[in-house]
Amino acid sequence: MENNKKALRLKYKTLRKELSESDSETMSLAIANQLLKLPIWDKNYFHVFLSIENHREIDTQLILHLLSGRDKNIIISKSDFATRKMTHYLLTDNTKIKKNPYGIPEPVDGPEASGEVPSQKIEVVFVPLLAFDKQGHRVGYGKGFYDKFLSECQPETIKIGLSFFEAETSIEDVHEADIQLNYCVTPHTIYEF
Fold this sequence. Notes:
Rossmann fold, 4 helices, 193 residues, seven-stranded mixed sheet, alpha/beta
């Protein structure tokens, strides 16, 4: 079995599709509980991706509850598919969320989406991924949004991948521009890179 990004994308999209809804809920809860063990809770600005339901992504609602219970600033993004750039907004009680044409929940434009936050201010990023390896490299959906965004963050920003599945030994076609994770959290393991 090849361990390049294309093959891994296919493998993990298939594995995810095979998860039942209750499996993914149980695993999402286990991941949220694992996060409590990480040395990140002294930080204030946390970037969270909103889950794409039809991709069976990790349910980040649980992480949002953890963060709001600790009065953290929660940052969510809007993606521009023309420029492959993400714009980040503070999530407030007034933020309206709507799915974009790709099924990605995003903040709606307008006065509610005010409070734009520069990437440099974000201290912790929860990173979506399809697969990752034991060196902290990740395979995303291949659009490059997160590589671009993470490269704009401070070098000390903590990057945490979230995965239902355990690490691959290595990913063959890693690029120099690929930004490594600091941690990856699965329902059973915390990997530190």
